[in-house]
Amino acid sequence: MFDIDDLFQWRRFITPSVVPLFFWVACFAAALAGLSGFTAGVLLLLESPLIGVVVAVFSLTMTCLGVLVARLIAEFVLISFRTDDHIYAIRVLAEPAPKPATRTDGPLPHAA
After folding, report:
1. How many structural domains are present in the chain?
2. How far apart are the first and last CA of the chain?
3. For residue 27, what are the domain limits?
4. Angstrom distance (rounded) from CA 112 to CA 108
């Protein structure tokens, strides 16, 4: 994870450490909402079987879609931060190499 010191220092981003937490909270919320909708659909089966089945299937579909969307958002954020790291590495590689030392003590001797 991250240390408390990282909150006050700008040496490291804390967002990549928090993204998995966001993902698991979003998955838990989607599962809870799906379970609630599925329960409502099952209870609705007693009054109207067709509508109850539609509600139950719809809530399970939306649960899967919610988990998928949470994963896509989390990956987009992580890719954004990794792109920044890669751009920094490219910049370091593209910096010009130091020039070799040259002789300054006079002309070079001629070969005879």
Report:
1. 1
2. 70
3. 16-93
4. 12
Residues 6+ apart with CB under 8 A from 14: 2, 6, 7
CA 91, CA 31: separation in Å to the nearest integer? 43
For residue 19, give the amino acid letter: V
* 11 within some domain: no
| pLDDT interval class at 32 (50, 70, 90) | very high
**Per-residue pLDDT for 54 more than 60?**
yes
In a domain, 89, yes or no: yes
User: Which single residue is written with the structure tokens 């070079």?
Assistant: 108
Three-state DSSP at 111 gives: coil
Tokens of 47: 């009054």
pLDDT value at residue 1: 55
Average pLDDT over residues 102-111: 60
pTM, to two decimals: 0.65
In a domain, 36, yes or no: yes
Angle, CA of 21, 22 and 26, to the nearest 5°:
120
